[in-house]
Protein backbone atom coordinates (compact mmCIF):
# COMPACT_ATOMS: atom_id res chain seq x y z
CA UNK A 1 0.00 0.00 0.00
CA UNK A 2 1.44 3.39 -0.96
CA UNK A 3 0.26 6.41 0.97
CA UNK A 4 0.87 9.84 -0.54
CA UNK A 5 -0.28 13.10 1.05
CA UNK A 6 -2.69 14.73 -1.37
CA UNK A 7 -1.96 18.22 -0.06
CA UNK A 8 0.33 20.09 2.26
CA UNK A 9 -2.32 19.87 5.00
CA UNK A 10 -0.91 16.56 6.10
CA UNK A 11 1.98 18.46 7.70
CA UNK A 12 4.66 16.50 5.84
CA UNK A 13 7.35 18.50 4.07
CA UNK A 14 10.82 18.09 2.74
CA UNK A 15 13.75 20.16 3.89
CA UNK A 16 17.23 20.58 2.47
CA UNK A 17 20.41 21.73 4.16
CA UNK A 18 21.44 25.30 3.52
CA UNK A 19 23.58 25.64 0.38
CA UNK A 20 25.29 28.86 -0.74
CA UNK A 21 23.12 30.60 -3.31
CA UNK A 22 20.03 28.56 -2.35
CA UNK A 23 17.32 29.74 0.10
CA UNK A 24 16.97 27.66 3.28
CA UNK A 25 14.39 24.85 3.21
CA UNK A 26 12.10 26.68 5.62
CA UNK A 27 11.52 29.63 3.25
CA UNK A 28 8.48 29.79 1.00
CA UNK A 29 9.02 28.25 -2.43
CA UNK A 30 8.09 30.19 -5.55
CA UNK A 31 4.49 29.75 -6.60
CA UNK A 32 5.58 28.18 -9.89
CA UNK A 33 7.38 25.32 -8.11
CA UNK A 34 5.16 22.22 -7.81
CA UNK A 35 4.21 21.13 -4.30
CA UNK A 36 6.51 18.34 -3.09
CA UNK A 37 4.88 14.96 -2.56
CA UNK A 38 6.06 12.30 -0.14
CA UNK A 39 5.28 8.69 -1.05
CA UNK A 40 5.34 6.12 1.75
CA UNK A 41 5.06 2.40 1.05
CA UNK A 42 3.68 0.29 3.90
CA UNK A 43 3.90 -3.50 3.96
CA UNK A 44 1.81 -4.22 7.05
CA UNK A 45 -0.31 -7.41 7.23
CA UNK A 46 -3.82 -6.11 7.94
CA UNK A 47 -5.24 -9.56 8.68
CA UNK A 48 -3.23 -10.02 11.90
CA UNK A 49 -3.27 -6.56 13.47
CA UNK A 50 -3.19 -8.08 16.96
CA UNK A 51 0.44 -9.12 16.38
CA UNK A 52 1.62 -5.68 15.20
CA UNK A 53 4.22 -3.84 17.22
CA UNK A 54 3.06 -0.59 18.88
CA UNK A 55 5.15 1.43 16.41
CA UNK A 56 3.60 -0.34 13.38
CA UNK A 57 0.12 0.11 14.84
CA UNK A 58 0.68 3.85 15.34
CA UNK A 59 1.96 4.17 11.78
CA UNK A 60 -1.07 2.30 10.43
CA UNK A 61 -3.45 4.49 12.47
CA UNK A 62 -1.75 7.63 11.17
CA UNK A 63 -2.07 6.41 7.57
CA UNK A 64 -5.76 5.59 8.06
CA UNK A 65 -6.39 9.00 9.61
CA UNK A 66 -4.79 10.72 6.60
CA UNK A 67 -6.94 8.64 4.24
CA UNK A 68 -10.17 9.40 6.12
CA UNK A 69 -9.42 13.14 6.11
CA UNK A 70 -8.74 13.06 2.38
CA UNK A 71 -5.13 14.11 2.85
CA UNK A 72 -3.74 10.93 1.30
CA UNK A 73 -4.52 8.41 -1.41
CA UNK A 74 -4.00 4.65 -1.73
CA UNK A 75 -2.44 3.11 -4.80
CA UNK A 76 -2.03 -0.63 -5.20
CA UNK A 77 1.01 -1.42 -7.28
CA UNK A 78 2.35 0.69 -10.11
CA UNK A 79 0.10 2.66 -12.40
CA UNK A 80 -0.50 0.94 -15.74
CA UNK A 81 0.92 2.50 -18.88
CA UNK A 82 -1.38 5.01 -20.50
CA UNK A 83 -3.49 3.39 -23.17
CA UNK A 84 -5.45 5.14 -25.83
CA UNK A 85 -9.11 4.18 -26.02
CA UNK A 86 -10.18 2.02 -28.90
CA UNK A 87 -11.95 3.92 -31.66
CA UNK A 88 -15.72 3.86 -31.37
CA UNK A 89 -17.55 2.65 -34.50
CA UNK A 90 -19.81 5.22 -36.14
CA UNK A 91 -23.31 5.24 -34.71
CA UNK A 92 -22.30 3.75 -31.34
CA UNK A 93 -21.79 5.59 -28.08
CA UNK A 94 -18.61 4.88 -26.10
CA UNK A 95 -19.01 2.35 -23.32
CA UNK A 96 -19.01 3.77 -19.79
CA UNK A 97 -16.29 2.49 -17.46
CA UNK A 98 -17.53 0.03 -14.88
CA UNK A 99 -17.71 1.40 -11.34
CA UNK A 100 -15.83 -0.59 -8.70
CA UNK A 101 -18.07 -3.07 -6.94
CA UNK A 102 -18.39 -2.53 -3.19
CA UNK A 103 -18.65 -5.83 -1.28
CA UNK A 104 -21.90 -6.36 0.62
CA UNK A 105 -22.07 -7.42 4.27
CA UNK A 106 -25.02 -9.51 5.38
CA UNK A 107 -25.65 -9.75 9.13
CA UNK A 108 -27.52 -12.81 10.39
CA UNK A 109 -28.62 -11.56 13.80
CA UNK A 110 -30.12 -14.80 15.14
CA UNK A 111 -27.01 -16.88 14.43
CA UNK A 112 -24.67 -13.93 15.22
CA UNK A 113 -22.75 -14.35 11.99
CA UNK A 114 -21.68 -12.03 9.17
CA UNK A 115 -21.24 -12.83 5.48
CA UNK A 116 -19.10 -10.75 3.10
CA UNK A 117 -20.34 -11.41 -0.43
CA UNK A 118 -21.62 -14.78 0.81
CA UNK A 119 -18.38 -15.79 2.56
CA UNK A 120 -18.30 -16.12 6.39
CA UNK A 121 -16.48 -13.30 8.16
CA UNK A 122 -15.03 -14.34 11.55
CA UNK A 123 -15.78 -11.67 14.17
CA UNK A 124 -15.44 -11.71 17.94
CA UNK A 125 -18.49 -11.14 20.12
CA UNK A 126 -17.67 -7.47 20.70
CA UNK A 127 -16.81 -6.84 17.05
CA UNK A 128 -20.16 -8.33 16.02
CA UNK A 129 -22.08 -6.30 18.64
CA UNK A 130 -20.29 -3.10 17.62
CA UNK A 131 -21.10 -3.68 13.93
CA UNK A 132 -24.73 -4.55 14.67
CA UNK A 133 -25.18 -1.46 16.84
CA UNK A 134 -23.80 0.90 14.20
CA UNK A 135 -25.82 -0.71 11.40
CA UNK A 136 -29.01 -0.60 13.48
CA UNK A 137 -28.58 3.18 13.88
CA UNK A 138 -27.44 4.55 10.50
CA UNK A 139 -26.54 8.25 10.17
CA UNK A 140 -26.25 8.57 13.97
CA UNK A 141 -22.92 9.57 15.50
CA UNK A 142 -21.93 7.85 18.74
CA UNK A 143 -19.31 9.03 21.20
CA UNK A 144 -16.87 6.46 22.54
CA UNK A 145 -18.61 6.55 25.94
CA UNK A 146 -21.99 5.90 24.29
CA UNK A 147 -20.55 2.91 22.43
CA UNK A 148 -18.95 1.57 25.61
CA UNK A 149 -22.30 1.76 27.38
CA UNK A 150 -24.32 0.31 24.47
CA UNK A 151 -21.94 -2.45 23.30
CA UNK A 152 -19.77 -3.28 26.32
CA UNK A 153 -22.52 -2.56 28.85
CA UNK A 154 -20.35 -0.30 31.04
CA UNK A 155 -18.28 2.87 30.79
CA UNK A 156 -15.37 1.92 33.03
CA UNK A 157 -13.12 0.61 30.26
CA UNK A 158 -10.83 3.10 28.57
CA UNK A 159 -12.27 4.88 25.54
CA UNK A 160 -9.28 3.67 23.52
CA UNK A 161 -10.88 0.20 23.73
CA UNK A 162 -13.48 1.41 21.24
CA UNK A 163 -10.74 2.63 18.87
CA UNK A 164 -9.00 -0.75 19.03
CA UNK A 165 -12.18 -2.67 18.17
CA UNK A 166 -13.11 -0.27 15.36
CA UNK A 167 -9.62 -0.73 13.90
CA UNK A 168 -9.86 -4.53 14.11
CA UNK A 169 -13.34 -4.51 12.58
CA UNK A 170 -12.12 -2.41 9.65
CA UNK A 171 -9.13 -4.70 9.18
CA UNK A 172 -11.25 -7.86 9.10
CA UNK A 173 -13.91 -6.44 6.80
CA UNK A 174 -11.27 -5.05 4.43
CA UNK A 175 -9.97 -1.62 3.46
CA UNK A 176 -12.03 -1.80 0.23
CA UNK A 177 -15.30 -1.88 2.19
CA UNK A 178 -16.67 1.46 3.48
CA UNK A 179 -18.01 0.68 6.95
CA UNK A 180 -17.19 2.90 9.94
CA UNK A 181 -16.62 6.64 9.56
CA UNK A 182 -14.62 8.59 12.12
CA UNK A 183 -16.25 11.88 13.13
CA UNK A 184 -13.29 13.77 14.53
CA UNK A 185 -13.82 15.25 17.95
CA UNK A 186 -17.02 13.21 18.44
CA UNK A 187 -16.82 9.48 17.72
CA UNK A 188 -17.97 7.00 15.08
CA UNK A 189 -20.91 6.28 12.81
CA UNK A 190 -21.84 3.96 9.97
CA UNK A 191 -20.42 5.12 6.63
CA UNK A 192 -22.98 6.61 4.23
CA UNK A 193 -21.98 4.27 1.39
CA UNK A 194 -21.76 1.13 3.54
CA UNK A 195 -23.62 -1.79 1.96
CA UNK A 196 -24.94 -3.81 4.91
CA UNK A 197 -28.14 -5.77 5.34
CA UNK A 198 -29.59 -7.32 8.53
CA UNK A 199 -31.59 -10.54 8.71
CA UNK A 200 -33.17 -10.63 12.16
CA UNK A 201 -34.40 -14.20 11.70
CA UNK A 202 -31.25 -15.72 10.13
Describe the structure.
- Helices cover 25% and strands 17% of the residues.
- A hairpin with a 3-residue loop joins strand 8 and strand 9 (187-190).
- It is globular and about 65 Å long.
- The chain is α+β, with helices and mostly antiparallel strands and 202 residues long.
- The model is unreliable at 1-16 (pLDDT under 50).
- Helix 2 (125-136) crosses helix 3 (144-152) and helix 2 packs across helix 4 (160-173).
Features:
about 200 residues; alpha+beta; single chain; about 25% helix; three-stranded antiparallel beta sheet; four-stranded mixed beta sheet
Can you lay out the helices and strands and say which pair or pack?
Blueprint lengths: L1 E4 L34 E2 L12 H16 L2 E4 L29 E4 L4 E4 L2 E2 L4 H12 L5 E2 H9 L7 H14 L6 E4 L3 E4 L5 E4 L3
Helix pairs in contact: 2-3, 2-4
In short:
The protein is an alpha+beta fold and 202 residues long. It has four helices and ten strands. Strand 4 and strand 5 form a beta hairpin.
Q: Provide the structure class.
A: alpha+beta
Provide the low-confidence segments as ranges.
Answer: 1-16
Helix content: 25-40%
Biggest pleated sheet:
4 strands, mixed
Q: Strands across the major sheet, in which order?
A: 6-5-4-10
Output the helix-strand order: EEHEEEEHEHHEEE
Number of separate strands = 10
Distance between the termini: 36 Å
Mean pLDDT: 74
Strand portion, in percent?
Answer: 15-25%
Radius of gyration: 22 Å
- If helices are DSSP runs of H or I spanning 4 or more residues, what is the number of helices? 4
Note the overall shape: globular
Amino acid sequence: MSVSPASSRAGWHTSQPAVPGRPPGGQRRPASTPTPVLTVTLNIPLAGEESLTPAARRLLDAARELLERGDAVISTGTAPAERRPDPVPAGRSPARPLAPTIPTLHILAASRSVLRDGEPLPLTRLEFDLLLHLVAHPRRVFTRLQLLNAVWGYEHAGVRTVDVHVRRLRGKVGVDVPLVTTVYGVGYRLADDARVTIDRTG
